[in-house]
Structure formats: structure tokens, C-alpha cells
Fold this protein.
Amino acid sequence: MTTTQTDRKVLLTLLAHPDDAEFLCGGTLLRLADEGWQMHVATMTPGDCGTMTDTRWGISATRTAEGKAAADKLGAIYHCLDERDIYVCYDKPTLRKAVDLFRQVAPTLVFTHAPRDYMMDHEMTSAVARAASFGYGAPNASTHPLIEGSCVPTLYYCDPLEGTDPLGHRVEPTTIIDISDQIDAKADLLACHASQREWLRAHHGMDEYLESMKRQSRMRGDQANVAFAEAFTQHRGHPYPTHDLLGELFGNLKS
């Protein structure tokens, strides 16, 4: 295990629910895929509460199939840690699953949720991802073999919904990436999650699943004087890499 970056180009997103990756960072994922990165999209849960009509098991099967379909379009491998919606916890069993996933993937770049977000599943997933990214390379942390080149990865937090924390304070990201050329393909990825349109309309009062994604991307684009953008906040605590990898790859529009 090294604390410095290697030449391996392996991305892992660990987010709470199927469709979170496509909504929050799908454009940047598309750009990374075009650059030849090995892509892994993981969800903490199968989205088993994301319905007003189906059973827990029925909607889980539907949403994990949607997650795999979106990952296939991206050229990514889909993983689900099979925790329960609304009950995601920072505890030993959940950490064990996450550490084992990191051990098998050995990512050099990780995306997860903002530490402060509108729902606790997101916040708990953020904490679990941070812990796993820090510790997965310790030889005794997992029974899975340690892949050569495993390292403390570059870690970014995705923009919270509407770019604000739970108290309504605007989040100022460290990195803004232009996804103007990717917005249509991003919408195609998100459209794989067809089950969520009805759920969001019933539970959140939203009837514009794709348009809400475009509004958030447009909001960050307006901030950077481009049509559409995605925002990230880099984790720079010891011993994480502090250079802005995304900015080096694609240009950081943060003024």
C-alpha cells in the first residue's frame, strides 16, 4: 500500500442509491470513460424504498437492473452493497462491505456524497466511503488480496442537491467541470432509471426527473460561464492527494 498516486486509472463511485451517480456526476463519468478509465459504479442500497406501489423486493430488482443498464451504457461495472434504504449506517458490517469492495477494485479516484446532504443515507455513505478509501489498503483490513498499486485515492465529494447543505447554505466547490458536450448522454444515462419518475412525482412532488438534473447542471454551468457543469469538493486531508486531478484532466472552471 502506498500513500501516493500510481499510474492506474481506476474510478469508483460509492453513492447511496441507483441513479445518484447518473444525476450527480454522470457527465464527468462520461468524460473519464472517454479518457480510458476503468469504471466502477457502486450503490450502498438497491433503492428498496424508492416506490409508492411495488414491494421492497420488486423495486430492488427493478432498480438494480436499471443501475446495471446505466453502468453498461457507461462501460462500467455495477456493484450493490445491499444495505437498506433509509437505514444506511456507519457501522462495522457496512464498513466491512465497503472495505472489501475497495480492496477488490483498488480505486485511484473516488466519488461519493457530500458530507452534509439533504438525507442521512447520503451522509452515512459519504462517511463510509471516506473510511474505506483511507483504510482499505492496510493488509489486515480485509481478507481479499491486496492489489499491487493500491493507494489512498484522490477523493471528491459530489455536489449536494441544488448545491446547498441541509441548512440551506450554498456549497462552494473546489472544482467545476464542463459537461456541456456530455449533457445529452448524461440524460440518457439517467433515463435508464425509469422507475424513479413516478416515485419522485408521488413522494417529492417532482414531475421532471431529467429537467431537475439539467437545472442543477445549468446552475453550476452559469457559475462557470458554460452551458452545463458538475461541481465537486476535493477531500485534501492527510494522507490524501491534494492536487486537483479532475482539474488537471479536464480544466477546473472554478473562478
